[in-house]
Amino acid sequence: MGGIPYTIDLLDVRGDTIDDWVYVFRRSWQFCLDAQQIAEGNLGNQRQELLNTILLRHRIPRETHREILSYLTDREPFPYLKKLDIGAAYTPFPTVGERCLECEHLDETSAIKRTCPQAGLYLWNLALRRFHSFHKNGFNQWSLCSHGSDCKGHHDCNDHSWAVRRDPEFTQFIEKEASRDNDEFLSLDQLGLGPVQRIRLDVAKDRARHERLKDGNLIYTEPFRDWHMVGGLGGLVDSMLHGRVLWKAWNEGPQEAGTHSEPAKWAVGRNLLAQRVAEMVIKDLHSWPGRCEWCE
Q: Cα-Cα-Cα-Cα dihedral of 171, 176, 178, 182, to 10°?
């Protein structure tokens, strides 16, 4: 599991090349990382319970108790994983292109036919560990389905009843998906999927923040990669709407502000073409595309 590097040779007199790489088995890899985090968290809790029992039984002073605990390096799983059943979440990609007896006799332009699950587009959200469904609307364009991971298709209603509209409705949709099976849900921030408190810092502090994150000085396995996956400085919604991960942002006066970013890392499609189409549909849900502070 990992990436396949490749090189593109450009046909020009300069002989330039482009080096890039694509993920292989990205979803399987994330499942393994998630399982590792959850297992490490459970083992850590068991170790602490056992240690507490031993220390209480032998009446070890609290000061010594605290000192012993300070040497334990138990890892807590990423906040979103604490309430997630990964066995139920990681289902196979839905099948498409097969015969559908329920709607094969209907006109191609009917709502039920357009929203047939066999004609849909599916995208796996790595950060939410859930599928997003897309159907063709009345204008023969793809739209994100508001039924989310519960979508069964064949929506016998007008497009406004199932299609997610522009932000803030899109943010509400993501919050609804993130809150599934989590009765303690308060916000995306609580789950580690929101933006940082202060996105822009002065140049020195921004550089120090980036180096601290890049060096992996966090408690999670693959910390920097996970941080990019869930949206970086701007959080998940920002990354999805802008199609990029914001990982540096500084401000040294009104004329000296800047950002660094890279392509978004939250999505996995059945293939790269389907993934690109679905990502573009979500970018179109930005309330003011090209006009907010973080648009590039």
A: 150
H and E: helices and strands count for the chain = 9, 8
**Digit-coded pLDDT (tens) for 240-264:** 999 999 989 998 766 678 889 999 9
Nearest by Cα to 78 from 178, 171, 191, 196: 191
In our burial notation (b when 16+ CB lie closer than 10 A, e otherwise), range 258-286 reads ebebeebbbbbbeeeebbeebbebbeebb
pLDDT tens across 143-201, in order?
999 999 999 999 999 999 999 999 999 999 999 999 998 988 999 999 999 999 999 99
* Torsion-angle region of 9 (φ positive above 0: left; ψ -120 to 50: alpha; else: beta): beta
Structure confidence by residue, pLDDT tens digits, 23-39: 668 899 899 989 988 98
Distance CA 287, CA 261 (A): 21
The CA distance from 254 to 43, in Å, is 50
Beta bridge partners of 18: 8
For residues 27 and 177, what is the distance between their CA atoms, to the nearest angstrom? Answer: 18
Give the helix/strand (H/E) hosting 122. strand 121-125
Side chain identity at 189, as an amino acid letter?
Answer: D
Above 80 in pLDDT, residue 139? yes
Q: Residue 127, exposed/middle/buried by CB under 10 A (0-12, 13-18, 19+)? A: buried
**Residues in CB range of 84: below 8 A, 6 or more apart:** 34, 129, 181, 182
What is the value of pTM for the model shown? 0.85
Higher-pLDDT residue of 256 and 114 is 114
